[in-house]
Amino acid sequence: MPLGEQVANNLPYLRRYARALTGSQSTGDAFVRQTLEAALADDDLKASLAEGRVPLYRAFNKIWASAHMEVAGAGTGASDHEAAAHDRLSTITPLNRQALLLTTLEDFSVDQAAEIMDLDSDSVQKLVQEAVEEIDRESATSVLIIEDEPLISMQLEDLVTSLGHEICGTAATRTQAQEVVAQRTPGLVLADIQLADGSSGLDAVDDILAIDSVPVIFITAYPERLLTGDRPEPTYLVTKPFKEATVRTAISQALFFNSSRPIA
Q1: d(Cα 189, Cα 168) in Å, to the nearest integer?
Q2: What is the reported pLDDT for 61?
Q3: What is the Cα–Cα distance from 185 to 207, expressed in whole angstroms?
Q4: pLDDT tens string for the chain (264 positions)?
Q5: How far is Cα 246 from Cα 104, in angstroms, rounded to an integer?
Q6: Alpha-carbon span 28 to 200, nearest angstrom
Q7: Are 236 and 250 in contact (CB under 8 A)?
Q8: What is the H or E stretch that residue 238 is in?
Q9: Cα 55 to chain center, whole Å?
Q10: For residue 75, what are the contacts with CB-CB under 8 A and spacing of at least 6?
Q11: How far apart are alpha carbons 257 and 23 in whole angstroms?
Q12: Alpha-carbon distance 135 to 33, whole Å?
């Protein structure tokens, strides 16, 4: 496979990682763009990208690590939502967040994450454990699950309650989601995009966001429908079949930023 095509295939997932790391589509994309520009300017770096995802993420992480303090402290001219997100970033150890995202959301092994982060495997494992402990300290909230497969819905219910949150309702269709929200606005939504009666989880989420700004995590077997670059993309996107650790990480990130609105 040509190098350009290989990198292009990995870009949607690098952009997902960058968004989750920064809480901002525009900021995440800016770091990805800097990574590609660095590769074009360095023949050795460019050649290394032929080895797959690890060197690409390694190149990205070097750029992020050299500038993350600027991101965490940014605020001049920012919207209230963007400033709040940056304030939250400054309270969480960036290395912990990177280690957890790499080993769960991006599904790298601990050894691969260690290579990406320029650390030894034991250090990465410790960072992951510390990040999990931070997740456990997150404030509890009420969760709406929009999912038409009963077994998956039950699995998500068990996971959510094990994290100390409560279920305010479950829905298999857009109409059912509307009925739940009419009674109580959730603090977090977990949503599939293809529902039982042919209705759309995207439309169900739009209904909720028209009422209030609520963090949303999309859990879908069709991530390519959302990773198009044609519209603002969801910051929190989990691919089916999922690992519970991946959903746990996404929940932590969503509650951390406490919003699903894209940061311009």
Answers
A1: 10
A2: 92
A3: 11
A4: 788 888 898 999 999 898 878 777 888 899 999 999 999 999 999 999 989 899 999 999 999 888 754 444 444 444 555 555 455 555 557 788 889 889 887 889 999 999 999 999 999 999 988 877 776 665 689 999 999 999 999 999 999 999 889 999 999 999 999 999 999 999 999 999 889 888 889 899 999 989 888 889 999 887 776 766 555 566 788 989 898 988 988 887 777 666 444 333
A5: 5
A6: 27
A7: yes
A8: strand 237-239
A9: 21
A10: 82, 83, 86, 87
A11: 7
A12: 30
Opening angle at CA 144, ends 215 and 108, nearest 5 = 60
Six-digit token string for 136: 């456990």
CA distance 206 to 208: 5
Kindly state the tokens that stand for 102. Answer: 């790499």
Kindly state the helix (H) or strand (E) to which residue 170 belongs, with its residue range. Answer: strand 166-171
Q: Which residue has the tokens 């999309």?
A: 218
Name the token pair of 18: 């960058």
